[in-house]
Prior knowledge:
Blueprint: H1 4-20, E1 26-30, E2 36-42, H2 45-50, E3 62-72, E4 76-77, E5 85-90, E6 96-103, E7 116-117, E8 123-130, H3 133-136, E9 146-147, E10 155-156, E11 162-163
Amino acid sequence: xxxxxxxxxxxxxxxxxxxxxxxxxxxxxxxxxxxxxxxxxxxxxxxxxxxxxxxxxxxxxxxxxxxxxxxxxxxxxxxxxxxxxxxxxxxxxxxxxxxxxxxxxxxxxxxxxxxxxxxxxxxxxxxxxxxxxxxxxxxxxxxxxxxxxxxxxxxxxxxxxxxxx
Length: 165
């Protein structure tokens, strides 16, 4: 019976996840140039870990927004990615604190050989765009990206920390 209880709990979590839907929320995100992207919001650890892996491309009017529980030096790698991207790290006020342009996919045979890209300042959010898009859309360090987070299931604490159920 002791073994069955954890299995039942795990099954309940899996069923709840399936009911909640596998697809992340999509919100509009406005770059400094005024260009609006439809952006997938990655909140859960497993969604953030998957990111753009295995996708053949990213439409020009799309992006990916990663939310983190607290500001930190969040690293991003390009394991199993098929195309280069620009990476923006944002503070709690959505100001760009660091960017990496035209980051190439990792072609290493061993995961540990894939480079991890880190910001020079703590960030609360990361945005992934098509390579070259940051420069074209005037997304430079110090500029601001505009978006409104989906309220369902999210709470922002003072200092930019994010909590979710």
